[in-house]
Amino acid sequence: MYSSNRKKLYIRMHEIFTLEAVYAPKLPLQQLRVRVLLSFKNEVSEPVLRCQNHLSKDTESNQTRRESLLRCENPTAEYCGTSEGKNINDRYSIIFPLGLSVMPRNDCPISQTIAIKFTCQNSCIGRRETSLIFLLEGMSGEILSQRVMDVKICSCPKRDYEADERNCARPSKRKANDIESRKQKIAKVENVTRKPAKIAIKDEDTSSDSDNSDSGISISRDLDLQLTPSGEYRLSITLEKDLMEQIIQNVNQAVALKIYKEPQQAKHYNKMCRQLLWYSEKFQRK
């Protein structure tokens, strides 16, 4: 079962589900591949390993395939990684090539089916939340695009799906009172002054059509970009809820990818991921 509200898949162990990898090839044609890996949602740098119970019962002869919590039914799938892997290439993952020999007519997108199943449940790994990460790569490993989907492997997907939907749609009485109290406080603050929400990001592009100065770039009343003493950029922006929630999700995905590229900075970026997830869950409860 898939929740479009939470962008989350609920599935049983060993149950196969299929996805369509859709991409638009560009000239000059190059060989591409898809890499799929499972990650903890709140600790992206930590590898996801199988439990000893299910591992001991697995009769798979291929050692890497046996230890992988992910299984791909595509015949061209290649299993890679180790239990100590930190970088993308060293983590347990599955890669398979996207076959393309000629340019399609009328620039039509190409699609290829991915069939995946899981060999453990979330209860095997301490009930920690997990996400599937899909990376479109060149054959030398450069990352061209990425997608992230939350997933819960459980014995009763329908039960967990309905429970999460209820919790998302109907907050508890205490939460409702807290939300109402926060709304009243926000209303009082807005009567005095309007303060935009703030998200700290790094970006090398500081161009703007508005006036700028050494201390920052003032674009409008609802948008302000400033250079911090540490060399980072701080963006202050006021948006409606839906757009802000989407921006938080996009920033969280970008930070997750940064962890894979720079594992030595994992501690710093993991803290940022947890903060972004907290804000994302806060939006969902409202």
UniProtKB/TrEMBL annotation:
<dbReference type="GO" id="GO:0000981">
    <property type="term" value="F:DNA-binding transcription factor activity, RNA polymerase II-specific"/>
</dbReference>
<keyword id="KW-0805">Transcription regulation</keyword>
<feature type="domain" description="p53 DNA-binding">
    <location>
        <begin position="1"/>
        <end position="167"/>
    </location>
</feature>
<feature type="binding site">
    <location>
        <position position="124"/>
    </location>
    <ligand>
        <name>Zn(2+)</name>
    </ligand>
</feature>
<keyword id="KW-0804">Transcription</keyword>
<dbReference type="Pfam" id="PF00870">
    <property type="entry name" value="P53"/>
</dbReference>
<keyword id="KW-0539">Nucleus</keyword>
<protein>
    <submittedName>
        <fullName>Cellular tumor antigen p53</fullName>
    </submittedName>
</protein>
<dbReference type="InterPro" id="IPR008967">
    <property type="entry name" value="p53-like_TF_DNA-bd_sf"/>
</dbReference>
<dbReference type="InterPro" id="IPR002117">
    <property type="entry name" value="p53_tumour_suppressor"/>
</dbReference>
<dbReference type="InterPro" id="IPR011615">
    <property type="entry name" value="p53_DNA-bd"/>
</dbReference>
<dbReference type="GO" id="GO:0006915">
    <property type="term" value="P:apoptotic process"/>
</dbReference>
<feature type="binding site">
    <location>
        <position position="120"/>
    </location>
    <ligand>
        <name>Zn(2+)</name>
    </ligand>
</feature>
<comment type="similarity">
    <text>Belongs to the p53 family.</text>
</comment>
<dbReference type="GO" id="GO:0046872">
    <property type="term" value="F:metal ion binding"/>
</dbReference>
<dbReference type="InterPro" id="IPR012346">
    <property type="entry name" value="p53/RUNT-type_TF_DNA-bd_sf"/>
</dbReference>
<dbReference type="GO" id="GO:0005634">
    <property type="term" value="C:nucleus"/>
</dbReference>
<feature type="binding site">
    <location>
        <position position="54"/>
    </location>
    <ligand>
        <name>Zn(2+)</name>
    </ligand>
</feature>
<keyword id="KW-0479">Metal-binding</keyword>
<keyword id="KW-0862">Zinc</keyword>
<keyword id="KW-0238">DNA-binding</keyword>
<feature type="binding site">
    <location>
        <position position="51"/>
    </location>
    <ligand>
        <name>Zn(2+)</name>
    </ligand>
</feature>
<keyword id="KW-0053">Apoptosis</keyword>
<dbReference type="GO" id="GO:0000978">
    <property type="term" value="F:RNA polymerase II cis-regulatory region sequence-specific DNA binding"/>
</dbReference>
<keyword id="KW-0010">Activator</keyword>
